[in-house]
Structure formats: structure tokens, C-alpha cells
Amino acid sequence: MSGTTLCPHCGTRFKIAKTQLEAHHGMVRCGHCLQAFDTRPNFAPEEIDPQLELPLLEDTLAEAEQPHAEEPGATSQDSVRAAVLQPLMLADKAVFLTGARDVEFLSKRRSRLWTIAALPLLLLLLAQTAYLFRIELAAHLPDLKPTLVHFCQIMKCSVPLPQKAGMMSIESSELKDDPAHGNRIMLIAQLRNRASYAQAFPDLELTLTDSQDKALARRVFRPEDYLPAPQNITAGLSANQELGIMLHLDTADLKPLGYRLVLYYSTGPDS
Predict the structure, then answer these.
(1) What is the DSSP code (8-state) at residue 6?
(2) Can you give 131-157 as a three-state secondary structure string?
(3) pLDDT tens for residues 173-186?
(4) What is the Cα–Cα distance from 162 to 135, expressed in whole angstroms?
């Protein structure tokens, strides 16, 4: 089955066969305006008996090739040849997308469209990743921290130091009497940051106990309570570094016999 189709770009009509209509989903490139288009929406089939099509075409060609004198009312040789060759001339104007160049042309066009459509999604994904993992990124990539801080100024967030309690430990601690004051004790402890990056200083909770391990008093010490004066709180405890602590406490009449000392982070990094 054959028929005709219309280029929607320039209006040129082409003759097309069924095999060409089905190839590459009907996509062709117009030989007149060089635009690609789908042949199927404007396809108009020709109702011709296949048993008569081939003999009729051959007879017409044979008659057209034999020279004869023109008779009044008869079709001239040039007119017959033009009528026979017209479908071929029309078909030559449509370049069907069967070559590698045409397939490559459409593939590149689709790739460009996908790239343009995916770019905003990629930027959104990168921004979301930077927001969710900003603390880890700043810890492991210190050179990136200024960029993350600027990003957080826009997003109304912050880039605090990591607070991994599992990577911060009390290496040693001791509770002893203050020889200069009878009702005072000294808490001596050694903190260690075992992470490969700087961490925020933790909170320390001290519980004083009696002989039955019953709590007599409890107090939480913030970093500003136990850090030496020159220590920079915002800088945190550097990677694989230790910090010595000494606190003088007034126990009054409690007379504790034991203690418990734990570290923790009372507030996580802000969102």
C-alpha cells in the first residue's frame, strides 16, 4: 500500500510506501525544507488494485519509450513520461531517516533536550546535598567551609562543628581533696578527640555519690565552665588532640565518697 503525506513545515506533498511509513516510526526529513517530521498524521492512502498497478506502469513506460507521431487528442511522449516519473520525483524530495547521520541528528537533539531538562534537577540535588551534609563536608573538606558558610547565609542555617560523642572520650579522671581548703575537692580529667576532624567541646556531667552509690549532688559543666581562659570555644578540640581539665568544687557538708563523670552534647547541630 502506498499513499501521500504532507510536510507540515513547508506544505510539500510526498509519495510514500508502507515500508517507508513504518520505518523509524514514520520519521523523515523533508528534501525541500530539510525539516524532520512524522509522516503518519497526514498520510493519505491510495486505493489501487495491486494486480493492475505493475502491468499498467510497465505498459505505460513501454508506450512512452516507443516513438510515434502525435495524433490529435492524444497525450504527447513528454507528457506521458512526466506523468510516469512524477511519483519518483516526489519521492526523491523526501529523505527517509534510514542513514546513520539522520539517526545521529535525532539522538543529539534528544540528548540536548534531556540535558536542558535535567540541569535544574541536578542543581536542586546538589543544593539539597550541601544543606543536609554541610557539617560533614565542612569537617572533611575545610577549604570548602567558607563556601558552605556563604550558602547557609542564604538558606538561614549555620555550619557548626561536628558533635560525635562516640568520637570524644574521657581518657582519665580523678576526684581528690583540695589540700588548701577542707570543704573543697578538685576534679581532674583528660578529654580526647579521637576523630580525624575538629569537634565541638562537649558538656560534662558530674554526679557525687555516697558509699551506697546514691547521688548526693549533680552538676552539668558547659565548655565555658571548664575551659582554660585562652582556649577558643568556637575552634573546638582539634583532631586527635587532648585537653586537660581541673575544676575546684565546694562540697560544703556533702562529704562524697564516689563520683560519676560523663560527657555528652546537650544540643545537636541546628538545622
Answers:
(1) E
(2) HHCHHHHHHHCHHHHHHHHHHHHHHCC
(3) 999 888 877 778 88
(4) 6
